[in-house]
Amino acid sequence: MDFELSADQQLLLTSLRTLLQPFRSPPIGAHGYVQYSEALQTELAASGFLEVASQPGYGLLDAALIVEEIASCPVSVEAAASALVAPLANQAASPMAIAWALDVPVRFLTVAKTVCLLRQGSWFIGSPDAKNVRQVESVVAYPLATLGAAPSDAVIVTGSTAEAITRRALIGIAVESAGLMRGALEQTVQYAKDREVFRQKLAQFQAVQHRLAEDAQLIHACRSLAFRAAYQDDDKSARVACLYAQNAMRKVIYDCHQFTGALGLTLEYPLHLWTYRLKYLQGEGGGKAEHAQRLAESVWELPNRMEPQRRTKRC
Amino acid sequence: MEFGWTEEQLALRERVSAFLRDELPDDWEHIASQSPGSQAMTDFSRSFCPRLAAAGLLIPHWPAEYGGRDASTWDHFIIGELMWAAGEPRGPQYYNVNWIGPTIMQFGTPEQKELHLGRIRSGDVVWCQGFSEPSAGSDLAALRTKAARDGDRYVVNGSKIWTSYAGLAEYCFLLARTGSERKALSVFLVPMDRAGITVRPISSVVGDGDLHEVFLDDVEVRESERLGAEGAGWDVARYALNYERVGIPRYALALRTLDRAVAVLMRDDNFAPVARDAAATAYAACEAAKLLVYQVVDERAKDAPATGITSMARYAVITAEHRVAEFVLDWTPHLFVSEEEPMVATHHKRAIASGIAVGAAEIHLNLIARNVLELG
């Protein structure tokens, strides 16, 4: 066990942070629900950061570190699928969209060059046909669209590679969630330090301190579990990381909005750019119910697979 | 950043596991279902710890000059993790090897080291920790027990409360006030048979043998029994707490308890999806706690100063313990009150103290707020 970043990892993150610096500042003034940054997407593509997992001397953990850092920014870009899944899909063109089903909102589909569609345990990977992509307007801070049919040029991936793609997609959810929660908490903590109520800073109230402290612990654990999942690249740790993150984010989202009050609900304030991506991820990949069932089967070697009681479509 | 064990660590894990398989008797779980400070557990520790010492597994982390093997922090931790998962057969003596001995090594006189370290490393002595008082728990510096200087001795008056293992302890690691300043405290190594010491057990839901009141009425303590300089008690205590910053790896027994409860549900064909959901959630909480504790060990192994990760790990452990305890109450409530799985009820007794003893949960949140988030 060694929880320190290696010198290479520190250098990687330092370089990435330099690239991300112009994108750290939240947009000034009123802005829309979504802040997709084509500029950052382009810079990341040119920089090679999203291909780090395929570089000699680097691996999936390094890719996860990058995805988490990117997610802590208030702008939305596709990074997780490109960095974590693409290496299993012949380094398919980026940006990539992960569609867990047809006719459900999919992140980044409107800008994706590659879509991975899950159908009955197999992944259909190809270029999204524009005629099958329908944009969805929502309050979520990701660009969303639905996919009406599998890509006409799809390569069908089955078996253990398909399982690995699923696993990498779940790791991506956990890692991205950790970064989003970190960004949301940092924003909220600063607000609490600045905001004065009842003649003292909001951050001086112990009730506020305790809840933010709990959030800090949850987020640190989310990051740790997500990085472990990337390092181990196995189903059990991926499910643990996803389950923990999708449970933890409920409290983090709630607390961040409670402490920023009405201001935090506005589009002029950047909090939603993190929390309304988290809300989308809360049910991604089957949601915590799915992860809990699969994790229980794995941990206790259960012979019979039981489906969680879901009536809604999977996102 | 790495998340795996080395070959040597895996070998140690197997060696300790094999020792436990071979040395724990068939009725161990019924013994372990009693408190670490109970007569049964204390008696068992007096036979188990010498065997553990003979196998080189009681104090391997101690410096060679004190009978150890300079084993790594990780080796020390691995042993402790497996011991706790098994129900802690070292009983009250885990205190001694984990922090009392190391603190005496750090601050003790040659005579104190001669007197105490030998018996600790042979697994043959029980200590108690005289810290908390009726008016000083989380706010330890508010303690009132006073050690008044009288020539080459002190006269101690006051009382301690919640003192684990005091009923059967031979020595007390006592923190007392030797000056008027808030942190003018000193540590004394006091024989529990000294005149003027009265111990009263406190019955509780955490089991008998663990909680006591200790009354000190004109107890004479020699200067030679003071550990460290007069007035340096706060630093001594902080050293002890910092050395022991990892704390008890409570998630280890929690995971085992969860396995037991799930096994009962599976046996009874009663492990429904909703129960699986709760079990998996509790499992994830334990995994999170484990990973954060490992980070504390990593800091300790690198001799790095304690950071906010210590409190985050402690808080995560508390959460995990309670999740598992609640799972048992929700899904296998009969195990809480029956003898069917004694360690399940035992876990509950230990878990309920998890957020209260050795730093209350709310104190850890204060520390996270201050040290990690820089609030207030």
Description:
The complex is a heterodimer of chains A (315) and B (376). Chain A has 315 residues and is an alpha+beta fold. Chain A has a domain at 161-299: Butyryl-CoA Dehydrogenase, subunit A, domain 3. Helices cover 51% and strands 10% of the residues of chain A. Chain A has helices at 7-20, 38-47, 60-71, 80-85, 159-194, 206-232, 235-265, 271-281, 287-299; strands at 96-99, 105-107, 114-119, 122-126, 133-136, 144-147, 155-157, 196-197, 200-201. In chain A, the strands form three sheets. Chain A has a four-stranded mixed sheet, with helices on one face. In chain A, strands 2-6-5 form a three-stranded antiparallel sheet, with no helix packed on it. In chain A, α3 packs parallel to α5, α6 (206-232) packs antiparallel against α7 (235-265) and α7 (235-265) packs antiparallel against α8. The longest helix of chain A is centred in the middle third of the chain and has 36 residues, at 159-194. Chain B is of the alpha+beta class and 376 residues long. Chain B starts with 6 loop residues before the first helix and ends in a 5-residue tail after the last helix. In chain B, a hairpin with a 7-residue loop joins β4 (171-177) and β5 (185-191). In chain B, the strands form two sheets. Chain B has a four-stranded mixed sheet. Chain B has helices at residues 7-23, 28-32, 39-54, 73-85, 94-107, 110-121, 233-243, 251-267, 273-301, 309-331, 333-337, 342-352, 361-371; strands at 127-130, 146-150, 153-161, 171-177, 185-191, 197-201, 212-222, 226-227. Chain B is globular, with a radius of gyration of 21 Å. Chain B contains 13 helices and eight strands. Chains A and B meet through α5, α6, α7 and α9 of A and α8, α9, α10 and α13 of B.
